[in-house]
Amino acid sequence: MQKPFIVGITGGSASGKTTFLNKLLASFAPEDICLISQDNYYHERDQQITDQNGIINFDLPSCINAHEYAQDVLKISRGETFSRKEYTFNNPNVVAKDLIFKPAPIVVVEGIFVFYFEEVAKLLDLKVYIDAKEYIKLHRRILRDKVERGYDLDDVLYRYTHHVAPTYEKYIKPFKNDADIIIPNNNQFERGLEVLVSFLNTKIGQ
Predict the structure, then answer these.
(1) What's the CATH code of the domain at 119?
(2) How far is it, in rounded angstroms, from Cα 78 to Cα 66?
């Protein structure tokens, strides 16, 4: 089997990465693409850091087991299959699955810190940055966290102001210029997606 072509995709929280990724994955046969998400590498809740008000900050690089993340990306780059327990965002109503990751011609490594983590970044063949304006990201975050995660508005705004925004400025935005492709996603990303899919098809002989 050919060596996987590894694509790193990052962007600020609520920049639209998940929607973009779903469209990207749907553009290829399942056997041609594999997604490795940073979300499945969170440390356990009791290992997380709390802020000055006792609120856990899930938006710090230290929240993620970066070494294990990098080691798994390295494994798949070598053609090895691995498994990982699904992260359920501390939702007690969701039973975590055992996820199996198999090598594929295209491997997508996704997460807000994939450019920041040097051990991961050095394994990437292509870096893609999903960009969106701050007020749009905030609006999306409010909708997502209220509907999907059950947070009230005050909690969402607190986390965005004290955790999400500072993390973006310190750990994500500075690496925007490291990207090979920047895809704006204020209204739509179809043109950027089309360019990326066309390029990746050349990597699998399509």
Answers:
(1) 3.40.50.300
(2) 18
